[in-house]
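Internal tracking record. Fields below are filled automatically when a chain is submitted to the structure queue. Please do not edit lines marked as system-generated. If the sequence contains nonstandard residues, flag them in the REMARKS field before resubmitting.
Queue: standard
Priority: normal
Entity type: single polypeptide chain
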Amino acid sequence: MNTLRRASINKPDEAGKAWPAIAIGLFVAFGGVLYGYDTGTISGILAMSYWQRLFSTGYTDANGNPNITTSQESGIVSILSAGTFFGALSSPFMTDYIGRRPGLMIATWVFNLGVALQTASTAIPMFLAGRFFAGFGVGQISAIIPLYQSETAPKWIRGAIVGAYQWAITIGLLLAAIVNNATGKRNNTGSYRIPIAVQFAYSLFLFGGMCILPETPRFLIKKGKHDEAARSLARIRRLNHEHPAIHAELTEVKANHDYEQSLGKSSYLDCFRPPILKRQFTGCALQALQQLTGINFIFYYGTKYFQNSGISSGFTISMITSAINVASTIPGLYAIDKWGRRPLLLWGAIGMCVSQFIVAMSGTFSTGQHDNGVIYVKNLAGQKAAVSFVCIYIFFFASTWGPLAWVVTGEIFPLKTRAKSLSMTTATNWLFNWAIAYSTPYLVDYGSGKANLQSKIFFIWFGCCFLCIAFVYFFIYETKGLSLEEVDQLYDEVTVARKSKHWRPTESWEHRQSVSGPAGKVLGNEEGQVSHNEKNEV
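SYSTEM-GENERATED OUTPUT FOLLOWS
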């Protein structure tokens, strides 16, 4: 019994029910399936022989088969990320004015437009247009979902709920691998149209659910709609809107927002000024480094990479890596709220760093290359070791950096700039996603003007993972178990990230407002209260 108690996540004794908020957060996380599936389909589609023949503009590959050029491949893969970049940046214009809920509903229809264009296409130009619009919708969705989740989730399990968005992404990647494997050998347009058109079902399911879900109470407080905020929170907590617990929670949210507003109106420039600047850098750097770990190299180009490495069934390996991605995210969701953000990100970076180095060494020395660029395996055991450590790397990523990038960025910003700040951190994710998607064929492939790195590209990912270790130690604050308003107070009072582990709030925002001076400046202790028990901090 004691073992079970130690293993469980501590739920505070609070009024109302927790399950409605958990159910809402998990449903909204389903939007990650759109992101993951759209990302996962392109790897398989690019390897389909019928698609290669249909979309080829006259180029033939090293084996003499019709195919697309490296520049065309880069454009097709990376155009999605270009769309998501602009989609993420555009999201605050909806979420800060019409709301988180309607913004998400509109984004699903932008995504549907892109899916329709891709499904109808038989040539590269329309396919590119479809991927851009689908990306624009996915970019909006990827910025809005963590925002909606973080503003509705109970603080004691917020990490798992927001992290479930990443789990949904992994499920989308797995579904894409399964559908691609089922249709990839068809000798007609169904080979690529079926995997693409399936996305309509996912999008309509999300849209239908959002029609009945509530707006977030924090957005309603931001807009001055206090009665609507009380009714929304009461619906989420399953309490009467006049219950004292509803009043107390909203009073704290309002006090925090009033303090932020007393410092001036919100603008994008505020995100790059103290005290938000440090958080903005942390969020953008975290999302950039998540991409620089190399995860999307596996899921964008994995099928072709494994085929080129001498493995007979790249599709099968892609399904295996996608399944590992899904399964490995589950223990990470538990650990986020049990052990915290800092230790998971730190140990995850160490595990990825070691795995990437072994993959680079094993892959480089176990394969050779003919004069025409065709890869052959000269050490089967070494190649199997490389594939095995790719799977181990995916485990470390999926259980740590995968979900935690969304969790941390979703909770570190104040309500005043949250939508704007989140849009920029998400856009950073997609900017680096685009850069990797566009440059990878030139870095990996054989030919004139290409680096022909092949497995050596994993040395680059190894170096980036090493950088992740230092970044976590110096910049990531521990926010486990804190409300969003308490996280704001944490950044206000603690200046060194490693000292955040033992910080606990000593006063409410309502009390801070009552003793504040001009322009909302709080009088009294400016250093905050941090426990002196800081031994063995991570």
